[in-house]
Amino acid sequence: MKINAASASSDSDKWKDVNETTFAAMGINDVTAANLSAVQYYLEISATPYPRTVAQIQAIVDETIQEMMVNAIYAYLTPLGGGSPPTVEVFARAGITGVDASNLAAILDELSWAYQEAKNNPFGTPMSTKQDIQDVVDSS
Which of 25, 41, 120, 125 has its CA 20 to 30 A from that of 61? Predict the structure, then answer.
């Protein structure tokens, strides 16, 4: 399988012939041009042993997308992050539950407030993990 060979290789051209179409042809969903580099990186650093099954590769892709969405939420919260307001879909893809169209604005306000509070607390965590974000959503 090209994906296993590329992710296990030390050759600098290893991903040359592996793109989002390659993943789709293998039945692996949600790999796009926008997330291809991140997916390739996570496949390279994953501890999942070779050869990986399609299901194992899909799980790594899903984890990659989830991490990217958590990072997108965090980028919105940080003043220099420059992120746009996350949508309900971003929260869902990040694995954050309890966010819908009716409470999205309130959740974003709560997250912004919690980020600032944590940032100003020398012992605080600045809302950079999925669990930090989920905890604020759950308390809202």
Answer: 125
